[in-house]
Amino acid sequence: MADIVEQKKRGNPKLVFLDLAIDNQQIEANMPRTADNGILAFHAVADARNFTKAAAQLGIAQSTLSSRIQQLEKQAGVPLLIRTTRSVSLTEAGEQLLRLIEQDDRDLEARLDVLGPRKDAPGKPIRLAVRSHYLSTVLRPKLSEFLPQHPDLKVEFDVIVAPVDFARGGFDACVQFGDDVPKDMTAIRLSSDIRFAVVGSKSYLAAHSKPQTPWDLTAHNCINLRPSPGEDLWAWPFMKDEQEVSMSVDGQLIFNQFDPMIEAVIAGLGLAFVPEYLAVPYLTEGHIEQVLGDWCPPLASYYLYCPSSPQISPEFEMLVDALRYRE
């Protein structure tokens, strides 16, 4: 708090509204007590872009800071902050509130209910980060039923090849394989457990002996996956009769997406480990063959994950409900 006071004394314009923390009479004169704590908490976080630093500046616990932010968001009816383990950013409504604070607006509480897009304004797109193969094979069929029923709803997709930073990217949600999501995130299951398949072209398998166990893969030209830059190559997981093995395979080709891996398989360039649902059309048409099927049980599901927030827009809630997996 002393640091904030000293910055205010030096004329830091961003801290003009923090006079409220120093002068209780001014608080009572200009803002009801139901809102002041939340406003102070929000402004401290918006200025520091860090909950730990903001709590230290205000001289309160992080849990208290979070509670005040949540109460303010509840009063406003919209999320104000996007918080992840890596960073903090402002939502559109949060940016509006920050501008009001910096303009020294003295009627902030009355303006809380008009934060965010106007009800008569065109809807802001819901932004989703997703891998291309999941968008084309799983999400698109669901959206083809859902979107015509909601003509005013807009969805913007960012096709990714690497993990995203919610705060910097401005995403509402991301789709990933598995439910191991970052802290402060909510995970919603979107699919049944996905089975993977080891596949190869007929010409490749005719020229090389078919693998009978995962260890036989060491003699094959395997097409690898590196999910994102800097990550290790993905080890191929197998299980049979409660025996689990994770194989680090070798080969000439490495991709960061499954679709080009399947194309390389069709071209006879090696074996690949891909989601079975992507391989089914080519298996059915006889372009490729599956091996080690008895070693490939279902692994995990796809999940949509998003920042945990007490305030979720009705449009986003409807979209999540449409995409949610049901037995």
**Largest beta sheet, briefly?**
6 strands, mixed
> In CATH terms, what is the fold-level topology of the largest domain?
Arc Repressor Mutant, subunit A
In CATH, the homologous superfamily of the largest domain goes by the name Winged helix-like DNA-binding domain superfamily/Winged helix DNA-binding domain
What is the total tally of β strands?
15
Name the average pLDDT: 79
In sequence order, what are the helices and strands, one letter per element? HHHHHEEHHEHEHEEEHEEEEHEHEEEH
Number of helices: 13
Characterize the overall form. elongated
Tell me which CATH architecture of the largest domain applies here: Orthogonal Bundle
Secondary structure: helix percent: 25-40%
CATH C-level class of the largest domain: Mainly Alpha
What's the structural domain tally?
Answer: 3
Radius of gyration, whole Å: 26 Å
Structural features:
disordered N terminus, single chain, DNA-binding, 327 residues, LysR-type_TF_proteobact-type, alpha/beta, D-Maltodextrin-Binding Protein, domain 2, sequence-specific DNA binding, transcription, six-stranded mixed sheet, Arc Repressor Mutant, subunit A
